Amino acid sequence: MSTNADVIDINPVRPQRVLMLSWEYPPVLVGGLGRHVHALSVALAAAGHEVTVVTRHADGAPLSERRDGVRILRAAEDPVTFPLATGSLLAWTMAFNHTLTRAALHATDTAEFDVIHAHDWLVAHTAITLAEHLHLPLVTTMHATEAGRHQGWLPEEMNRTIHGVEHWLSNASTRLIACSGYMRDQVTTLFEVPEEKVAVVPNGVDDRAWRARPRAVASARARFAGDGPLIGYAGRLVYEKGVQHLVDAVPQLRDRHPGLRVLIAGDGPYRGELEERTRQLGLGGTVRFAGFLDNTQLPAVLGATDATVVPSLYEPFGMVALEAAAAGAPLAVARTGGLAEIVEPGVTGVTFPHSDPPALAGAVGQLIGDEVFARRVARQARSMVGRRYGWATIAARTAHAYAVARREHAPAQARRPAVGLPAPRRPITIPHGNLLVGTAAC
């Protein structure tokens, strides 16, 4: 599939002053968002831009520091945050945004900014408040959507509220960034924003960090492989990642490939059900749950596999596919979301329909049954990652999105009322449920 994500030649732009907002940033790493924001910020700084990241505090981390060329401000929790947020993500998010806003306003005491860059709905209130207060363009990266995570079903009030905040943030932003053509289409449809407002900028990967030494790869293979092929999975253990379909495909694969082993790296709330399904199928000696593996262990493990499988039902981008490709693993991925834009069948890996264990087994069988083919697509995938998804390239494309947002914001600023409050906005009606979101609601 071709999208404007394939266009990687971006003319350099002049240095810009960026205020980055994220609820994750090292040492706080919950999922992939924190790693993305860190790598992007460092790459932007290396390209000459001034980057200030405002994020949540972590025990033992300084409230303010400069690291890797990036200024980092961490917002300490207010004294009432913990009891307020017990059992409620929405309550915690509101409390977090209050302290995040104050920390970001402190940043403006000693620095000026050209653009605000927000990451996902969890920082929406801070982002919109700052953009309106400072009269700055707001760029928002939508890493995923609540509707997408739930396959279009928003069953609870919390789900509908998150969807409403995403809708509000999308429409309040000067420009949106989507990590894939798939996500661009989802954002424009769900949130009723014009396609020309959305730039497709994929996630990046430091391919050098994922190239393990041959000795480490051999050690991982000796530890996890049996007398046959080694199949790998890495990621969160949640329903939408589709690991259940990998488990259901293992009996067919094992019958055809004696000695086969499957390594599942990662953790999450679905792990218990996956382990129970493994026991029901009698796969205890074939499937191993390794738990969380950090970035010092995972590259060697992925590099040791004969095939790494990404069986997601919903995948806005598919970061683990890039990381596995950089590690040298042959890829078998579900033909869904952003994954379909990363892997070209027969060239950089193989694909299969999601939620289809027999098709998954057939795709993996192509790789483990033909070593020459598997190594060829693995080499081509690794080359593609370095060429298209390096962080310098991603930073340049992001900086270009900032420059476009600033150009688009200037005429809008000129039309603002000279005095008094900003012109009121019409409320946005969300198509799911009866939630009505205005400029200060949620």
Question: What does this molecule look like?
Answer:
Keywords: Glycosyltransferase, Transferase. It is a single chain. The protein has about 450 residues and is an alpha/beta fold. It has 2 domains: about 5-205 and about 390-435, Rossmann fold; about 210-390, Glycogen Phosphorylase B (Rossmann fold, 3-Layer(aba) Sandwich), CATH 3.40.50. The protein is built from 16 helices and 16 strands. It has helices spanning about 35-45, 80-85, 90-110, 125-135, 145-150, 155-170, 180-190, 215-225, 245-255, 270-280, 300-305, 320-325, 340, 355-370, 370-390, 390-415; strands spanning about 15-20, 50-55, 65, 70-75, 115-120, 140, 175-180, 200, 230-235, 260-265, 285-290, 305-310, 330-335, 350, 430, 435. The strands form 3 sheets. An 8-stranded mixed beta sheet has the order 3-4-2-1-5-6-7-8, sandwiched between helices. It has a 6-stranded parallel beta sheet with strand order 11-10-9-12-13-14, with helices on both faces. Strands 15-16 form a two-stranded antiparallel ribbon. A hairpin with a 6-residue loop joins strand 15 (about 430) and strand 16. Helix 4 packs parallel to helix 6. The longest helix is centred in the C-terminal third of the chain and has 24 residues, at about 390-415.
